[in-house]
Every structure is written in structure tokens, then in C-alpha cells.
Amino acid sequence: MYGLCPWARGARLAGEIAVELVWGAPSIDEWGAAAKRALAQPDARVAMVVAPELVIEPFAFHDLRNRVIEIIGTAGIAEFHPEAAIDLKTPARLVPFLRRSPDPMLQLVPLALLESVRTSALAVDRAQQAQILGGYMSPRDDVAARIAETNHETVSAQHVAIIATLDAIAEDRRTAYARVGISEYR
Predict the structure, then answer these.
(1) Which ranges of the chain have pLDDT less than 70?
(2) Which stretches of the chain are assigned E, i.e. beta strand?
(3) Nearest Cα to 74, choosing from 32, 26, 43, 104?
(4) Which helix (DSSP H) or strand (DSSP E) does residue 173 occupy?
(5) What is the pLDDT of residue 1?
(6) Residue 39 is inside which H or E element, if any?
(7) pTM (predicted TM-score)
(8) Please, which residues have CB within 8 angstroms of residue 112's CB and are 6 or more apart in sequence?
(9) Spatial contact of 108 and 49, defined as CB atoms under 8 Å apart
(10) What integer pLDDT is reported at residue 29 of this predicted model?
(11) Which sign does the torsion angle of CA 134, 135, 138, 144 carry?
(12) In degrees, to the nearest 5, what angle opens at C-alpha 90 toward C-alphas 144 and 159?
């Protein structure tokens, strides 16, 4: 919708996302096993482990993510949390908000895939070529930094609509989960 992740739509449409669910308050071993199952799916370029019933503080979830990294070792892991506040001061401070999700979720991407993205050749348009030739832009700008800056510009301009969309998704989640009896575990 807002084009914040340059790979999300393509991965979703190509069927390259694997999703595993963990229920209740899963142990670290259950998180690790679910992550391994998701990464082992044949077409998975992105794996997600979602905990629909888990209520956990953001800092505790960050620590849990670090423990899963120790178990997996072959994937970059980012935590997504429902309680991420918006902070528009810098692109880096905006990242937790961009990782706001209806449920606590770990996103795993194989390290080999991350490395290929970081080392791939840049596709630059004419305006960017002029900036490179004029010394105003490096031809090897870090892809993560460019994405963060672009996202910061987008969210700064559209944050009211984005927050409303995320709030609507959270409300739909609460309604749908209540309807089917999914409860919260602490």
C-alpha cells in the first residue's frame, strides 16, 4: 500500500513467504523449531513466526529474538511488535514503528539472501547518475540506508493515514480473534 518494503509485494506474490504460528506463550525451543520449519520450506525467501496469543513487552520480545538468533544462526531476524510508537526524528528511530504488526512476529531472512541484496549492483535513474557524477551521491550507497531514508520521507508525509490504517488493522484483529476464540496469554 505504501511501498515501505521494496521486496514485500514481490515475495508475497511469488509465494516466497513461509508462515508458522506458535500458540500461547511459546518456549524458546518452540520459537526455534517454528523458525527452522519456516526456513526449511522450499520456496521461502522470507519466513515469519507469528504468536497470535502472546502478550509480551517490546524489550522482552527483543531479548527473545536474540535468543532465537543463537538457535538459528543462518538468518537475519527482526522482531515486529504491536506496541511500536512512531518516532520521526530520524530514519533509524522510525524502524520500530515500521515493524509494527498486529501480533508479535519474528521475520527471518537467510543471511545469504541478505548478503546478495547488499552486494547487488545498483539500478540508478538519470537523476541519480547526475548526483553520482556531481559527487553528491555515492554509487555504492548502502541499500538499507536508502530504504530507511525513503521510508522516513513517506511516513513523514503520510503518517496520519498510515497510523489510521494500522489502527484499523489492529481493531479488525481484535474483532476477528474474539469471534473465533483466540485469547491472549501472558
Answers:
(1) 1-2, 114-142, 185-186
(2) 17-21, 46-50, 75-80, 105-110
(3) 32
(4) helix 143-180
(5) 59
(6) helix 28-40
(7) 0.81
(8) none
(9) yes
(10) 96
(11) negative
(12) 95
Per-residue three-class SS string for 112-156: HHHHHHHHCCCCCCHHHHHHHHCCCCCCCCCHHHHHHHHHHHHHH
Residue 35 contacts residue 68 (beta carbons within 8 Å): yes
Which pLDDT does position 2 carry in this prediction?
65
pLDDT score, position 134: 54
Angle, vertex CA 152, rays to CA 150 and CA 153, nearest 5: 65
Report the distance separating Cα 27 and Cα 13, nearest Å.
Answer: 32
Going by their DSSP bridges, the two strands 75-80 and 17-21 should be labelled as: unpaired
Q: Please report, as a single letter, which amino acid is at residue 177.
A: Y
Element (H, E) at 177: helix 143-180
- Percentage of residues in the chain with pLDDT exceeding 90? 54
The predicted pLDDT at position 4 comes to 75
* Alpha-carbon distance values, 110 to 79, 96, 176 (Å): 15, 21, 32
In sequence order, the β-bridge partners of residue 69 are none
